[in-house]
Amino acid sequence: MGEDADRGGVSSVGVAACIQRPGSYSFLFCGPWRLVQPCRQSTGPRATMPGKLKARIVAGRHLPVMDRASDLTDAFVEVKFGNTTFKTDVYHKSLNPQWNSEWFKFEVDDEDLQDEPLQITVLDHDTYSANDAIGKVYIDIDPLLSNEAAASLSGWFPIYDTIHGIRGEINVMVKVDLFNDLNRFRQSSCGVKFFCTTSIPKCYKAVTIHGFVEELVVNEDPEYQWIDRIRTPRASNEARQRLISLMSGELQRKIGLKVLEMGGNAVVGYLQCFDLEGESGLVVRAIGTACTLDKLSNAATSFLPPCSSPSKDLKESPLVHQPSHGCRSTHNSPIHTATGSRLTQNFSVSVPTLIFTGMGSGSGGKDGGPLKALYRQQTQSAFEHREFPFFTLTTFPPGFLVHVGGVVSARSVKLLDRIHNPDEPETRDAWWAEIRQEIKSHGKALGCHAVVGYSESTSICEEVCILSASGTAAVLNPKMLQDCSMEGCSEHRLSRQPSFFSTGSEKGEFDFFLQCQDSASLLGLDDASSLGCSFCHIPYDELNMPFPAHLTYCYVCRKQKVPDVLFTTIEPPLEAAITGKGCLIQARLCRQKKKTQGEANATAISNLLPFMEYELHTQLMNKLKLRGMNALFGLRIQIAVGENMLMGLASATGLYVTALPAPGGIQVAGKTPSDSSYDQHIANIQKKINDLIVKNREIYEINPPEILDELLGSPIPETRQRSRLFRSHSESSDDVPELDLSHGKKDAFVLEIDDTDAVEDIQSLLTDASTPSGFYSCNTEVMPGINNWTSDLQMFTSVRVFRLNNVTSLTSQGLNKTFSDVCENLLKTLYFKLRSMVPCCLCHVNFNVALPEDELIQVAVTAVALTFDKDQTPYIKVGTDKTLSRASAENEEQLQFTLELCMESQATQSTALFSPAKAADISESGHLQAVSPAIQTDRCSSWIEFIKQKAQTIRRGSIKTIASLDKASPLAEAHARHRSPISCATSTVTVVEMTPLSFIPGAKIIKYLGIINMFFIRETTSLREEGGVSGFLHAFIAEVFAMVRAHVAALGGNAVVSYIMKQCVFMENPNKNQAQCLINVSGDAVNFVKESDVEYASTQAQGSGLQAGNGSGDIVA
Amino acid sequence: MAVELDVFVGNTTLIDEDVYQLWLDGYSAGDAVAIRIKRGILEQTGASPDVLESDTMDHYRTFQMLERLLHSPPKLINQLLFQTPPSMQSMLIEKYYTFDEPFVREVLGKKLSKGTKKDLDDVSAKTGITLKSCRRQFDNFKRVFKVVEEMKGPLVENIQQNFLLSDQLAGDYAAVVFFANNRFETGKRKLQYLTFEDFALCAEQLIQNWTLGAVDSNVDDMDVDLDREFLQDLKDLKVLITDKDLLDQHKSLVCTALRGKVSIFNEMETNFKNLSRALINIAAKLIHTKDVRDLFIDLVEKYIEPCKSDHWTSSDVGAFLTQYTNAARALDAFKHQALWERYMCTVKSCILKMYHD
What angle, rounded to 10 degrees, do the helices at B167-182 and B86-97 form? Predict the structure, then answer.
């Protein structure tokens, strides 16, 4: 099959001659959906002043010394929104000024509220010369515009300067008063909620999932304007930051309008990225899934799968009672089709759909055949209404995802200097539309009408830009997409009646939902929901397969056909039956290319891409087999383009899906004829591989139940496909001799080592180090098979830049190995760093590769380490962690600062593994805390007490263990000796957790406070003084984290979920002692409570925001 | 292939206490890696040296960034840059301000000036503590000194409030500050046998009894300076040795009380006048700053050494000083009871602490 796919990919590469007319068809893509939205530059009639924004500057602290003479600062603040600026008084000679300003009021329209950030500038007053800027704070007002979220924010924000970094903090209060009903002209989309989370957010239920929304806006990049030659780097950076902030706001507003147009009220799986195109502009683009969400009235129920109200089920159930109800809804499709004609100009590399299944033929599931077709027709019609039936979601409510076809992806190479009208978005719109069209047709080829887990990305080098899109072709339950709540998961079981189909046909009408129900049950939907295998069943017609695949009967239900391997970009479905545990699987590839310009360059890249994609899949496949697994989830393939090379990195989580057949082994075949020593060599390699597979099965606990072949029916493979070579393009000719090297009863993949590539493959297979014991890793949200998470989590970002010394001298293998080592070493460092958290799992491991300069490779990883209990008992509320967590639980009940304490005890828990003495120490102190009556009465002093006790115990090695034994008395005495208690040690800083996951283990999200979307630039002209590139970036990343935390805390939150670092663009010039870095992060600000506190909280919470963020509460007061 | 840039940043700042200690001890990142390898971390974890190096560098960078905040611990507690649990914060502070015994013995009582700082390489050579670590410890002394020097209120509490140290460490710093301010001589060869702990207790006694703050805790009290008035008055105690009657009376009272109770009774009886003279002369001289500085050397030379040569045990010393102090109360002609108590109680505690068997 490889050959076919391969050729398909190459043939679809655009013809070089076509680039002569770039962008000339762009107007074709102004589909009707674009017409319903306001024109971009429109300033049409608008209601005046629909809102009032108020800001108050309270105080500053830790300001930098601006006056060398006095070692002090005369600070004042400018507050700017839109074109209005207010100033505070100058607070003379202080590093901790108390401005206590009045409320500055801005009367603004809501469009501006959405687009503009509130800009706060702290300056040092200077009588004789110009005032010096200390730094700025940009506050995104958007989270305050939703009627559910907080109407005000307040807290300490780091004062940020793009040259100096964080310079002190400022306490700001912001309020928004929105006057209702002024959205008449729909310029704004206030009230539409945005979520980065790629699943239905925890305290909501989805009423309708409307579908794909996208938008992009373009502007000139300030860094490339003429004025940049004369202005300071600071001014340039600030202009850029402000512009991106504005553009993000505009983008969000426009997407919001589309959502309102579709009848939705929220965007889930919102992903916004920016492309620094250089001369041709700065693009901010976003995709997401429009939904209608309902807030669950009682947040407590959100823990259960949302199918708890039977009465509602009955009412909404589209059974025989109300057949017309569902029917109508199909016409309500909010988007009208406007599929533009496919563009053929430019380079367009569409990479073939890649799912790896064997060929299968024969009869379908009993009498299911015709119905299947009917079902397909019906669902098709439901999706035909959508221009792009894409979903950025990766997790779905049970019953939503019917079947998964496989991964579909498309890439396209574009030349940025050929954009006809670079300031307008049309060309880029057309580009993306083209790619999406490609994806859609790939999906169709797989017999699927929808693409889930959809994402888009770009890689830019000079004037060349690679656009990529990928997703998972899937068949969805159309019922769930229409006016039907997501509470439908149990209905299938209700509706399964043997006479059902005949009732429908007697009526002579094919009700949409009737069909759906009916066929669904026949398709094994209901079985699937109980057995967890349905999503594996093939959606395509087995008689007319889009590619060669090897089918067998499902190993769970034994009724439907399944492929032998499944690749997806989504999370493993909740209901999926998984055997054992999974692991992170990566394929890495580097390919050199000639340094050329323009079209030649683009052609070269286009020619390389399909091969790279194919090689990556080969690697993935081999590594998957090596681990004895049969499915990949969360697959993400990144292609980075540089001056003289291309880099590909595919990451996914390998799992053994119970429904799929066990993978065959990997067979190594030597070239013929061969001598005996060569045979010996081959045999050695084969043995190594076999041993590794056995070992991996043990590690990942893959012990699938043995199923007798007779029960499954014969797998019916065509002999030709039986022993498909799994090799790259090099032997893509059809006359490869037939090899039949079955591995036991299963089909084996054969690696022929008759060329250098294969040697390399085998090398890379065998050199991948396995994760050290105690660690698991995956790039999905969580690892199936582990569910007893403790609440200890550590999110981190690690960035590495490598310099390759004379790339040109390196062979392709050498380059590959280097890149592979880079990634492996990075992972090893992570395991080492996090060793104190064992047993733990690195979740959502997200690699980002880039080629910032000629010989530089940049790899950035963001992930979260979660600890779990070794014993496999499921997570219970208080945590099963013996003495330690009991101690911490006691603390939590009695103290307010649960988080800190908890984190502390968790952190020490791990060290406790090494030194039991210390563990005793900690639990002892925890115990002390709990029994001391003073603690309940005075929070403040208990804190200090705590710090002191800790201090006491750690002071000087020798005292360590003794201190805990006789702690109570001497400490109390010592304390009593002093005349007054210490009051300054209380921290005003709220602890804010950050995680790339959509949830927090052991905790419950009670409120979503809005999207966090921040963009920062940092530049230095004193690189050496700041500790070199590492020192510079280390500080910058820490600063970004700090600013995110501060914003979340100011909103009253205590965590960011679905956090993602979307971009980290790093440039250096060590000769000039300069460096610059741009970072773009986003996530959802939330408020959570520990599960152990839930009962307590629910009685108190009632609207009060739950003393949201103890620290920020202090500040408001 | 060369690693150009390599960073790891956690949302909660990861701190490895062992690496922190190496950093505090003034080892370079390279030395720290070597030491960690020597301690067998590679075997324990199966890591490779480059992984260890990367990890050490990350920690060193973090510590460097933290150092600025550690100079002002309340800032560390309230800063937003590094999210660390309170226990970790207090560990960071406590360890940063912890000093080494050999170092403090070198510097105790010296003026915390640039000159002293220049001599730190000698201190480093003598003590085997790295120069870097010596500088940190010296700078800590100086920083704490500068902050609390002019502050009103109890010294230990001031230190605790401004540096968030544990009771004990704050007490130690109070001693350092007090000694530096009064420039007590502690470096003489005869004083070498005394530990910092000995001096710290003496300092505590002096602060509690001999400073302005000791008399009454009004707002203006200062714990750093000795009560000049008190020192001035001390010369009135001379009457105990100049008035022959009083001296004899005093001696007989003490001898009566101690007869049969101490092993060195005869020596005590012979030496009583000398010892009494020694103690009272020390008191009378304290009006001169120079003699204040020599307080400890005087105590050793004039009192402790004579006792030592007569083989007094510390319980003998304790018994004698107790009776010596108490007996003065029975002397009707002696009018300075309060002054006497204030002086003798402190001196007694100091001597007892300094008298090693």
Answer: 30
